[in-house]
């Protein structure tokens, strides 16, 4: 396009100087170009804006969805918390949470019922407040040891402890502990069950058993009186014989002092034995409280055999002992277990009394450890055994097949053994004899009762 032809086509341009027109044309062209460029830029911006608006709408929708999901899980959490809270406060067991320093973080309503403190009174205070002073001293160390070494016997197990009530008295509890972590901080939750009622019941049972044992001891006394009289008679007869010999020796012209001293020593021994038998009887009747000590059962068996030694010799009974040498001591009332053993020995000896003269009589006693938790004592004889019709009756009170029997020995023995958390049973082969078995918890086991 030339400047001449263009100038004639634009109205008003004809009266302008050609240089001016050219200048105006140039300006116009520049303005047109920049208009085009601006339009293009506006187009690009509009496209970008539309894109961003779409993106924003999408993320807005995603955000709305997230907020809704968050609201939902918040609602679920609130429901869960309400549910847990109602369990927490309705629980019969006290639930206390403490932090690593032993400070109470939460306590439920049952804690007030058990220990008298409200949650407000406990939160922020040391758990030692609820412990007897001697335990409180050690408690901080227990927690520290556990955190440092991760080792505790109590986590996950139930333990019997004493807690201190707000009123100052102690409350027996079963305590179980669990731990948990929040944001790297360790917490402990203790679940406390008040065992006061159970303890009272146990105490009542114990007192009842002790009373029963006392009453039965009195009954046993009657039964044993004839046996004891018989036993005391033995040393007395011996004393009479020895003193007669001594008197005869004194009458002799030449006094054999050595012989006399020997006989007097034997007399002395027999007198002591008679005294021991009577003491034993007296202790047995008097002892109202069943004091328990650690007892070596094998030794107790040997002592009892010593008390029946005369009868064993008199009836020509062959005694077999098979006593385990790995028996742990048992925690028992020595007098009571001795009475049970004596009763079984006496029954066995009495059972063999009527065997034919030439029939060999055997009494076998064994002890053994039954799986480390119980010890077993067996007393076996080869007497007539127990007739099938009698089997169910022999342990019942006042059942006897003996002319002078009282029928209390076995029933009392069973009560005494059961008071020790043991058992008394028997096996019998009519015509060939019978064996009575006692089981008693070993020391470690007895600690658990
Ligand atoms: N070793 C035994 N052999 C046979 N019978 C036995 C034996 N031990 C107990 N008995 C039977 O059990 C009964 C009850 O025994 P026990 O209660 O000790 O009372 P008692 O000895 O006064 O009769 C005895 O009368 C006897 O019939
Ligand atoms: Mg008897």
From TrEMBL:
Residue ranges constituting the PAS domain according to the UniProt record: 80-150
Domain Histidine kinase, residue spans: 227-444
Leading EC class: transferase
Catalytic activity entry: ATP + protein L-histidine = ADP + protein N-phospho-L-histidine
Extent of the signal sequence: none
Enzyme Commission number, as recorded: 2.7.13.3
Coiled-coil annotated residue ranges, if any: 35-87
GO MF, any single term: ATP binding
Xref: PROSITE patterns: HIS_KIN (PS50109), PAS (PS50112)
Pfam families from the UniProt entry: HATPase_c, HisKA, PAS
UniProt GO BP: regulation of DNA-templated transcription
UniProtKB keywords: ATP-binding, Coiled coil, Kinase, Nucleotide-binding, Phosphoprotein, Transferase, Two-component regulatory system
Protein name stated in the entry: histidine kinase
Lineage: Bacteria, Pseudomonadati, Pseudomonadota, Gammaproteobacteria, Methylococcales
